[in-house]
Amino acid sequence: MNPQHPSVLSPKEVARILAVHAKRWLIPAMVVGVLATVYALKRPAVWEASQGLIVRNEAVNNQENPGEFAGTDEMKTVQETILELVKSRGVLGAALKEVGPPADLKQDAAAWPTERDAAGLREAIKLTPPKGAEFGTTKVFYLTVRDGNRSRAVTLSQAICDQLQARFQQLRDDKARSMIDELVHTVELAQTDLAESTARLTEMEKQVGSDLAELRALNEAGTGESTIRRTISEIRNELRETQTIEQANQQLLALLREAQEDPGRLLAAPNRLLESQPGLRRLKDGLIDAQIRTAERKGTMSDQHPLVRSAMQSEEEISRHLHNELAIAIRGLQLELRLNVDRLGLLEGQLAEANERLTHLAELRAAYANLLADTGNCTQRVEQAEQNLADARASHAGATATSLITKIDAPEAGINPVGPSRSMIMLAGIAGGLLAGFGIVFLTVQPTRPVPPAVEEVVAAAGAADSPTVAIESNAPTFPPGGNLSFKQALHKIHYGSTA
To answer: What pTM, to 2 d.p., does this model score?
Structure first.
């Protein structure tokens, strides 16, 4: 194996190389240092003015928490809108016109500001939330403006904030105007629909006429028994009562006709049949009483006794009056039966009419309910549209009166310009120049190494004591023992590692 020599240079060798080749690293170091110094002296100072802002929500459409955002998404949307506005051509151009051209302006002042000026200012503006926060999580954010002049940076920051507030108010005003125009049209359409629905409903109510209350009662749930239904129930009850009376009168009439031929049938008749004939009932009771008295007297007296004869005459008189009363009662019952028939016909007609009205109203109820629902929906749409229109008008009034963006104190520019100082730039330039010079030296200079002892022995064996010094950059090769080599063969062996 060939012996390996170290490839790392010692500090002594490095110092020797730097001292021998001083120009190679001094010139680049001086050039870079001078350039850095010139840049540091000529570099303009950059000042940064920061203005704190806070944004709130509109208080008009938020009754529960006026001025608060409903969520982070809504807040983020507003802040992104502000971010787009602050870099818009209108805001930047108006701010530049308000501040005026810089003192070192080289172009025509009449053409100020140009698109290039607005673009340059757009690059110098940043809108950021507080440190560690994101848009949508906090209502506070900062507007930062950079400029070569401290007072101009502060002035630009103030002007941009003022123009941002004005432009945001104008945007809200334009949005509110657009909403007002749209909602006015919506209200007109809703009112037209409501008028048409109301006209159809009015026409149907006119057709219903006096049964309108009944139709409304049918349409309303849980209102109890309606008027027509109650009337039908009363007619049916009266009809049943009339039919019952008619049946009782017919039975009584048959009884009275039989009693004309056999008075005993009348005496056996129940009293409930004679409730409508109080005269007959009294004569019947009187005849029974007379018969009882006659029987009592006959039980104690003879038939020729004056009291018995008087009782018998009284009984006969009552029987005669009862017979005469039967004829009168029969005629009265016949008349009442005819009246009952007429009454039954009238009640049946009223019942049929009521049922017909109820059937007609039942047929109209579905259409009437739809018209009522349609009219109610139209009314709700009109109310909602009018409420939205009122909110839009309130937003429009608020847009022209107040701003949702509020400044926090005044712009701050700091006491020192941003970026590294001149001394730091010069030191960095000098250090960079030295590094560049050292790099050039070690890239262009090949360091030398001492000749290995084996090579000296080879050279001495070849008889080349007066030959010049040979610099070897690789490990010395091994030679076969006892070999005699010439100087040329020795150099070839050293260089290629093999014999010729």
So the answer is: 0.54
